[in-house]
Design a protein that fits this description.
Elements lengths: L24 H8 L5 H22 L13 H20 L1 H8 L10 H17 L1 H11 L1 H19 L5 H30 L4 H29 L1 H23 L20 H17 L1 H14 L3 H30 L1 H18 L7 H30 L4 H29 L2 H26 L8
Helix pairs in contact: 1-2, 3-8, 3-9, 3-10, 4-5, 4-9, 4-12, 4-13, 5-8, 5-16, 6-7, 6-8, 6-16, 7-8, 7-10, 8-9, 8-16, 9-10, 9-13, 9-15, 11-15, 11-16, 11-17, 12-13, 12-15, 13-14, 13-15, 14-15, 14-17, 16-17
């Protein structure tokens, strides 16, 4: 029986005990009926203790204090922000590398489809290993996994700088970078929900906005570096940036939930219709989500006749739009709309942008505007998905639950952009754009079903 609360540590004084749920109705009623008689009081308090312990044992939690909704939580949000800045910022800037390598002799056998595999292999591996990464974070601690992941990120980029064939890039900047990304990403994206409740969407939105801002920064930096020092030194400089940034993250990160050495995967979650529908929603959404990030520079160059610098600027603005959306949409979800409603609205508007706007872009300005607006809404997928999971299923097992759900995203991340590349090369740009838009729209069907499973009232804030 758990009746005492202690402090558990991960690493060096970094772990505080988690918040827990509520004493059940039975214990509350007993406490209300306690009277002054010593024997009756003793029996009642004993029953309260037993009921509380049962609740704690069932939930695996042992601290009744709620999340602080601030304090050191903002330092944790910053650590998560930097992790997103580094990992997804580098992944989202791959389109600049791809556009550059297609116009140089660095890899003579490179094709658009083959090079797009490097970026999608990295993103796909990140999500494919999500379940493993979440379990390892729960078992060995968040800081430990962030340290391992950060080390792999640096090693992968250093090795990629010596690549002489595209398949070398696939193994290093693709697969190995993806492994390191997964080990670091899932602990980082889960942490803000441990520290915030009322402002959870805003905190998570600020944290994941790091990916959009990282994409904005890295797209510009990479575009200038590859022209100044070439591909290889650009990748080495990027490795140094990763080493410094992730070193800071590992030093300041702190979790509230202690490691659970014997945690097991709860496959029974798939019996919950909401969980299953979230799984298939993520499967469809990721087929279309990355395509603008990967192909907008190439679309601009081939269809509109833009330069590499203009293409990198479009990708930068696209990433900036994604970052802005993640923050402001999170604020709207917390204060006005509701988390599930906001995620549904984001995916619908992103699909509408791709289907009704992108096919008609024919200038630098129109493509720039499309990139910003589309990713402003699609950024809600990254910021709101973890919040919706926490809202529906709690925060204690959030890393492994996110890993299970994001595993569905792996197929879309692996296949989405390469399939679009095949469509572009064989059928042209319009069919590829429709492919991205309609798959994104398909994800909305599952979100609508989830929303009305939770609350059938049309105007309810859910």
């Amino acid at each position: 029986m758990v009746t005492q609360h202690t402090t558990a540590q991960e690493g060096s004084g970094e772990t505080l005990l988690p918040d827990t749920g509520k004493i059940d109705t039975e214990s509350s009623e007993i406490q209300a009926n306690v009277v002054d008689g010593s024997e009756q009081s003793h029996d009642a308090m004993k029953h309260i203790e037993e009921a509380t312990a049962l609740e704690v044992d069932e939930q695996g939690e042992s601290d009744l204090e709620p999340p602080p909704d601030g304090g050191y939580g903002w330092v944790v949000v910053f650590a998560s922000f930097v992790t997103h800045f580094v990992i997804l910022g580098i992944q989202y800037s791959w389109g600049v590398y791809q556009s550059h390598l297609l116009t140089t002799s660095t890899f003579p056998t490179a094709s658009q489809t083959l090079l797009s595999l490097v970026g999608t292999l990295s993103a796909g591996t990140l999500f494919l290993l999500g379940l493993l990464s979440g379990r390892l974070a729960e078992r060995f601690g968040f800081r430990t996994m962030l340290s391992i992941g950060s080390t792999l990120l640096v090693i992968s980029l250093v090795l990629a700088s010596f690549a002489t064939e595209v398949w070398h890039l696939l193994l290093t900047q693709g697969f190995l970078f993806g492994v390191g990304s997964s080990f670091a990403y899932f602990p980082a994206v889960s942490l803000p929900s441990q520290w915030f409740l009322k402002r959870r969407s805003v905190a998570t939105g600020i944290a994941v906005s790091g990916s959009g801002i990282g994409g904005f920064v890295f797209s510009n930096v990479v575009a200038r570096l590859v022209l100044a020092v070439g591909f290889r030194w650009t990748v080495r400089i990027t490795a140094l940036i990763v080493l410094v940034c992730m070193g800071v993250v590992v030093a300041i990160v702190r979790a509230r939930i202690p490691p659970k050495p014997h945690a097991a995967t709860n496959w029974g979650m798939f019996k919950d219709a909401r969980f299953a529908m979230l799984f298939f929603m993520g499967f469809l959404a990721t087929f279309g989500y990355l395509i603008p990030f990967v192909y907008l520079p190439s679309f601009g160059a081939q269809v509109i006749g833009l330069t590499l610098e203009q293409g990198s600027l479009i990708l930068s603005i696209t990433n900036f739009g994604s970052a802005a959306g993640r923050i402001f949409l999170g604020m709207g979800a917390d204060q006005y709309v509701g988390k599930i409603n906001m995620l549904t609205l984001c995916m619908f508007l992103s699909a509408a942008c791709m289907l009704l706007w992108w096919p008609f872009t024919n200038s630098f300005g129109s493509l720039l505007a499309f990139g910003f607006v589309n990713t402003f809404f699609s950024g809600g997928f990254i910021s709101m998905f973890p919040v919706v999971i926490a809202e529906l299923f709690g925060v204690e097992r959030l890393p492994s639950l996110m890993g299970m759900l994001f595993t569905s995203s792996a197929i879309g991340n692996f296949a989405g952009a390469p399939l679009a590349g095949v469509i572009i090369e064989t059928k042209g740009w319009i069919p590829a754009i429709l492919y991205a838009g309609f798959l994104t729209l398909g994800s909305v069907v599952f979100l609508v079903a989830i929303r009305f499973t939770v609350n059938r009232k049309i105007f309810a804030r859910v």
